[in-house]
Amino acid sequence: EKGGYDHFMLKEIHEQPDVITDTFRGRLLPEQGIIRMAGIEDNLEKFLKADKITIAACGTSWHAALVAEYIIEEFARIPVEVEYASEFRYRNPIISENDILIAISQSGETADTLAAIKLAKERGAFVFGVCNVVGSSIARETHAGAYTHAGPEIGVASTKAFTTQITVLTLIALRLAKAKGTLSNSDYQMYLNEMGTIPAKVEEALKQNEEVLKIAQVYKDAPNCLYLGRGYNYPVALEGALKLKEISYIHAEGYPAAEMKHGPIALIDEHMPVVVVAQNQNHYDKIVSNVQEIKARNGKIIAVVTKGDTQVRDLADHVIEVPSISEALSPIITTIPLQLLSYHIAVLRNCNVDQPRNLAKSVTVE
Ligand code: F6R
Predict the structure, then answer these.
(1) CA distances in angstroms from 11 to 17, 123, 153, 317, listed in the order given
(2) Which of 21, 113, 118, 309 is a Cys-bridge partner for 305, taking CB atoms 3.0 to 4.6 Å apart?
(3) Could you tell me the distance, in angstroms and rounded to a whole number, from the CA of residue 150 to the centre of ligand 1?
(4) How many angstroms is it from 245 CA to the middle of ligand 1?
């Protein structure tokens, strides 16, 4: 049942190239320059007329929402707000019939997300679901939606659900951008073509498994760990930290890299591992200087770099290379080594990887 893997989590991490392909199937058609998603086509006018899109979710799905915020705003120029469903439902949010709520949920059963949907519907908003479990409560409560095709996710720590959520939301952003004309035709086509390369690039990122295991052996006993990223990879840092916390019970925090100097940098000494997602694009010089700041304080640097990188490699204690891709599409790739890192650390600490203490797969109570 675990397909030869020791744990469901590892199996599910390795399924990602295939399930992302499944999520693309019939939707991503680069040769024709088309993205086809019935839930979007049928409601295109609503998306185009919306004043704003609010995305409500919890946990890992909330991190996918943050990635989506950056991508939808950049590609489709529609204002996006991301809310913890648990906060949104209790704070009299500003949402009305001109708004869209996107609810993201792997299980489709999360109580707070379901309550956020009900509230948004009461206020007249159009509610769109991004769920994995077919026929789940959230899939049924929403006006329309797009399924992730991750297949059953058994490991409590979400992995393939996260990358397929980002996949669906990126397709949506590109479809809306096409309709609005907010991306040039050449950029639009380039992103479609690049989307098609993601499964192979995820496969390539998975080949870093042995490298990641070696790093895990060095840091398995660390009491704390920081994760840093900028731009599209800031939510990846948050997700990396959450994965480590939940399955290895090591205290970890994710930050946008530039926030370090506003406080967390005080934590850095020779005992602090810092995982830096350092893609060599939009903010490269900035991320290099963030890495220098950590190095100057003797922090231990584990960097996720783009293939061929030299500057961060020279500064870092350990590097994990991932294939190059446009930064907007990179979270699906950069997440892979962070999933593997948390997995290996948890296994080395003899933790119950698939069933971490105190956690349940679907949180049906608030
Ligand atoms: C983390 C994790 C949780 C869930 C959260 C939302 O690995 O699994 O944080 O992401 O409970 O669950 P769904 O997506 O089912 O609404």
Answers:
(1) 12, 42, 10, 29
(2) 309
(3) 14
(4) 14
DSSP state of 231: G
Cα–Cα distances in Å, from 230 out to 238, 242, 258, 347? 11, 17, 8, 29
Contact status, residue 137 vs residue 108, Cβ threshold 8 Å = yes
Q: How far apart are the first and last CA of the chain?
A: 32
Q: What is the pLDDT of residue 283?
A: 82
Handedness of CA 182, 186, 188, 190 (dihedral sign): negative
ipTM for the predicted complex comes to 0.99
11 is catalytic: no
CA distance 229 to 282: 12
Residue with CA at minimum distance from ligand 1 atom 9: 59
Ligand 1 pocket check for 110: Cβ under 6 Å: yes
Both structure tokens of 89: 């439902």
Cα 152 to averaged position of ligand 1 atoms, centre (Å): 14
Task: Give the residue-averaged pLDDT of 333-349.
Answer: 98
Measured distance CA(250)–CA(271) in Å, rounded? 13
Q: Which residues is 305 bridged to in the sheet? A: 278, 321
